[in-house]
Write a structure and sequence with these properties.
- The complex is a heterodimer of chains A (151) and B (273).
- In chain A, α3 packs across α6.
- Chain A has 6 helices and no strands.
- Chain A has one domain: Cytochrome c-like domain (Cytochrome Bc1 Complex, Chain D, domain 2, Orthogonal Bundle).
- Chain A is 34% helix and 0% strand.
- By secondary structure, chain A is mainly α.
- Chain A is globular and about 40 Å long.
- The longest helix of chain A is centred in the first third of the chain and has 14 residues.
- Chain B contains 12 helices and 9 strands.
- In chain B, strands 8-7-9 form a 3-stranded mixed sheet. In chain B, strands 1-2 form a two-stranded antiparallel ribbon.
- Chain B has 273 residues and is mainly alpha-helical.
- Chain B is globular and about 50 Å long.
- Chain B has 3 domains: 29 residues; 150 residues, Cytochrome c-like domain (Cytochrome Bc1 Complex, Chain D, domain 2, Orthogonal Bundle), CATH 1.10.760.10; 87 residues, Orthogonal Bundle (Cytochrome Bc1 Complex, Chain D, domain 2), CATH 1.10.760.10.
- In chain B, 42% of the residues lie in helices and 8% in strands.
- Classes of the chains: A mainly alpha (151), B mainly alpha (273).
């Protein structure tokens, strides 16, 4: 899976402009087992410190826009759309957290939380984001590693 | 003026980051009772969701920067332009009387075009057909100023759009757009302005997304922003390809969203962050 994404990207570079109109990335397929994603999306564990950055960065996770986290108290503007993520590692297994981040509508029907690892089935996506998920597989794994520190 | 705004922005940030104030402000939000069958129980203007400083700026006619546009357009109203040798005043005389209530009831059905038109389109129709002048570009200072000026003549009057008869398919189309999720973030207008209004999102309190204050002076942009530019911005932010300003889609959406704010007083020119 990951290899095919890399290959698609390389193809993109050589094809140049044509890429912008023609998304060459294959649709992401999630291996869901019992409402969870047991396997790491990269095959390796993520990095919690990198995950904290992804969590906070507006153009990446932007998770704080909707959630509150006490250990990030020094950061401004904790949003109120979603619940506090304090202790979330105790409420869900790693595999459940992975699916919640990758495609939360599979767990919370009709939620406003975006799917961070999904690249199709969306409407009027701006051209520069067509065929792309909000986060890469590695970034999702990093966020999961960070969420696991919230216990 | 610039310094004043910097102070206001700082005050807003300081205010917002004190969590307890979030609830203190909540209790003060005043609204109007919605008619039966409406989506909200209480219809609340975006004004109520803004900081005390921003509200004070809107309320003070001398300090409210939106009034500069009203003054500029009052001069243009009298100015002869175009091959027909007319000004707005040649036909409409005093705007204070001829335009009273007009801006509160837009978009309106146009028999000739067989579709609803909003205020910007109506003004440009007068320029091209009645004045034989060039239409003003969307987002140009001239068009936004004149839109503000005409709508200001309805200041304090209730928003009252017609949604039946030939308007009804447009209303339904607008409603459909309102509830459709768009963009990479997969969010609908409803996700934010219906389900989550009153809540804090990043640096902002989410309002009901009402249109009674448009064009609105945005402190962030330091200029008046027309409604369809705000629609574009809200779609852009969810990483969606926005519809075009003055497109049929945005006119339908404008009609539907105006209905969601039915009965609110026109606040143009309002002030928002």
């Amino acid at each position: 899976m990951r290899r095919s994404l890399v290959a698609a990207f390389a193809l993109c570079l050589s094809a140049g402009v044509a890429c912008a109109q023609e998304p060459t990335k294959t649709p992401i397929k999630l291996d869901i087992v019992n409402d969870a994603l047991p396997n790491s999306l990269t095959g390796a564990p993520g990095n919690a410190e990198a995950g904290r950055k992804v969590f906070l960065t507006r153009t990446l996770g932007n998770c704080l826009a909707c959630h509150q986290v006490t250990s990030l108290k020094s950061e401004e503007f904790h949003g109120e759309f979603g619940p506090s993520l304090d202790g979330v590692a105790g409420r869900y297994t790693e595999a459940q957290l992975r699916l919640i981040v990758a495609d939360p509508k599979r767990i919370f029907t009709d939620t406003v939380m975006p799917a961070f690892f999904k690249n199709e089935g969306l409407s009027r996506v701006r051209p520069e984001f067509v065929g792309k998920s909000i986060l890469t597989a590695a970034q999702v794994e990093d966020v999961i590693a960070f969420l696991k520190t919230l216990n | 003026m610039l310094q004043r705004f910097a102070g206001i922005a700082a005050a807003a940030v300081a205010f917002a980051s004190v969590a307890t104030c979030v609830f203190a402000q909540d209790a003060e939000r005043k609204g109007i009772a919605a008619p039966p069958g409406h989506v909200f129980k209480t219809i609340i203007s975006g004004y109520e969701f803004r900081s005390k400083e921003t509200r004070a700026l809107q309320d003070d006619d001398l300090e409210n920067p939106g009034f500069l546009a009203v003054e500029r357009a009052a001069d243009v109203w009298k100015k002869v332009e175009g091959a027909a040798g007319k000004s707005c005043m040649s036909c409409h005389e005093q705007a204070e009387t001829s335009m009273k209530g007009v801006g509160a009831a837009m978009p309106k059905w146009d028999d000739k075009l067989q579709k609803p038109v909003n205020l910007e389109q109506r003004i440009n129709i007068c320029r091209t057909e009645h004045m034989k002048a060039e239409p003003w570009k969307f987002k140009s200072q001239e068009l936004t100023d004149m839109t503000t000026f005409v709508r200001y003549q309805s200041h304090g009057m209730k928003v009252s759009v017609k949604t039946d008869g030939p308007m009804s398919p447009w209303f339904e189309r607008g409603k459909q757009i309102y509830y459709t999720r768009y963009g990479q973030l997969d969010l609908a207008c409803e996700s934010c302005h219906e389900r989550n209004n009153g809540k804090f999102m990043r640096a902002d309190f989410l309002s009901q997304g009402q249109t009674n204050g448009f064009p609105t002076y945005r402190l962030r942009d330091q200029r008046l922003v027309p409604l369809h530019e705000r629609f574009e911005g809200c779609m852009f932010d969810v990483r969606a390809e926005p519809f075009k300003p003055l497109s049929d889609e945005f006119i339908a959406l404008e009609l539907y969203v105006a209905w969601r704010g039915i009965g609110l007083p026109v606040e143009t020119p309002s002030v928002r962050n």
